[in-house]
Structure to design on (159 residues):
């Protein structure tokens, strides 16, 4: 059983959103007027999903060093790689747009029926959001890099 957890704001000694693709794990975001593209990489599948989530959050909000004040856990169905990425992103965007909770920490664990996602978040009115939250994920990919043990993810977010 694999698991990973990640703070969604980079710590002082952690790579930024403009991390090098040679780093063991990281992400970058390319903003656009109607859509943002997030590219993520990590040595594990769930680590790569966590990096993609960090890139998605950084695309529209500055969470700084906020500590979570609200938590919830959900089992997301889906065992295929793209299904896991899509389910996690859908849950994160649902929390932001419908519940008013912005994730600042996530934990992911593999389960036989899919993935267990735990989100630690803050109320959206406690954070500076320079852009409005994405409406939907229009394209996503999660795969092992050919000839490597590294995982990569690509996400396009529509505004």
């Amino acid at each position: 059983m694999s698991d990973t957890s990640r703070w969604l704001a980079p710590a002082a000694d952690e790579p930024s959103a403009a991390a090098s693709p040679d780093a063991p794990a990281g992400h970058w975001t390319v903003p656009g007027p109607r859509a943002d593209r997030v590219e993520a990489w990590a040595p594990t599948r769930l680590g790569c999903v966590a990096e993609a989530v960090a890139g998605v959050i950084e695309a529209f909000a500055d969470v700084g060093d906020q500590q979570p004040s609200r938590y919830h856990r959900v089992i997301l169905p889906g065992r295929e790689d793209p299904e896991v990425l899509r389910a996690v992103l859908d849950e994160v965007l649902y929390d932001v747009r419908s519940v008013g909770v912005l994730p600042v920490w996530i934990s992911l664990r593999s389960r036989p029926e899919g993935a267990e996602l735990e989100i630690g978040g803050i109320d959206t009115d406690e954070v500076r959001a320079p852009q409005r939250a994405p409406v939907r994920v229009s394209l996503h990919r999660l795969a092992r890099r050919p000839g490597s043990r590294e995982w990569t993810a690509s996400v396009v977010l529509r505004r």
User: Anything to note?
Assistant: The chain is about 20% helix and 40% strand. The radius of gyration is 14 Å.
